[in-house]
């Protein structure tokens, strides 16, 4: 009788040990996945900051005006170059 009980306890003990090993392996896999996700999040944060900096630089009025003058050959509007249209007359 005690031999059967020892066998049952041994089987239960082995099942618990295998379950523990499985749980530890799964915890390691999840931890590695978490580290990769955190690394990707840090990379995306850096990229987001760079994009915000680029947006603020590219959207400045002085830069837009400089590009308009250089690339499009635009000049500021002056009073002597302004034409006013009136309704119904010349």
Characterize the structure shown.
The structure is a single chain. This protein has 90 residues and is an all-alpha fold. 77% of the residues lie in helices and 0% in strands. The chain contains 2 helices and no strands. The protein has helices spanning 2-58, 61-72. The chain is rod-shaped and about 120 Å long.
Measured between the Cα atoms of the first and last residue, the distance is 120 Å
H-E string: HH
Spatial extent as radius of gyration: 37 Å
**Which sheet architecture does the biggest sheet show?**
none
Structural class from helices and strands? mainly alpha
Number of helices: 2
Helix content: over 70%
The tally of beta strands, per DSSP, is: 0
Topology:
Blueprint: H1 2-58, H2 61-72
Keywords, please?
rod-shaped; 2 helices; mainly alpha
Short description:
This protein has 90 residues and is an all-alpha fold.
């Amino acid at each position: 009788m005690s031999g059967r009980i020892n066998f049952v306890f041994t089987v239960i003990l082995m099942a618990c040990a295998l379950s523990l090993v499985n749980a530890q392996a799964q915890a390691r896999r999840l931890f590695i996945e978490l580290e990769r996700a955190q690394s990707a999040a840090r990379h995306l944060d850096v990229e987001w900051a760079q994009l915000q900096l680029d947006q603020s630089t590219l959207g400045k009025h002085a830069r837009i005006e400089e590009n308009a003058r250089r690339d499009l050959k635009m000049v500021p509007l002056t009073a002597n170059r302004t034409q006013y249209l009136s309704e119904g007359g010349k």
